[in-house]
Amino acid sequence: MKDPRDILRKPVVTEKSTSLLQDNKYTFIVDPRANKTEIKEAVEKIFKVKVEKVNTMRVKGRIKRVRNIPGKTPDYKKAIVKLRQGDKIELFEGM
Predict the structure, then answer these.
(1) What is known about its subunit structure?
(2) Topology of the domain covering 4-85
């Protein structure tokens, strides 16, 4: 089994992800090879909460130009995790 800290890369803090906190949904960038079961187990193990549902999506990188040289930002995988009623992740509190 993979280390849970290798599966969860970093939390996503955007206006949309902050508004999802009201529905008890938390957003993370995760390892692209991780599946929903691994993401669920990682969140439960790291934050000591119960996960009800995991939604994942692959986000394509954008085309960028630096000094007229085209490049691309990396693709990544994003997971929206819904927690059981009453559970919270302290990392996101206070936003």
Answers:
(1) Part of the 50S ribosomal subunit. Contacts protein L29, and trigger factor when it is bound to the ribosome.
(2) Alpha-Beta Plaits (3.30.70)
Between strands 51-59 and 76-83, the pairing is antiparallel
Helix (H, G, I), strand (E, B), or coil: what is residue 13? Answer: coil
Q: What is the dihedral of CA 49, 46, 94, 81, to 10 degrees?
A: -60
The string of DSSP letters for 45-83 reads HHH---EEEEEEEEEPPPEEEETTEEEEPPPEEEEEEEE
CA distance 11 to 58: 15
Please report, for the chain, the start and end positions of each structural domain, with discontinuous segments joined by +. 4-85
Query: pLDDT tens for residues 3-54?
Result: 888 999 999 999 999 999 999 999 999 999 999 999 999 999 999 999 999 9
DSSP-assigned letter for residue 40: H
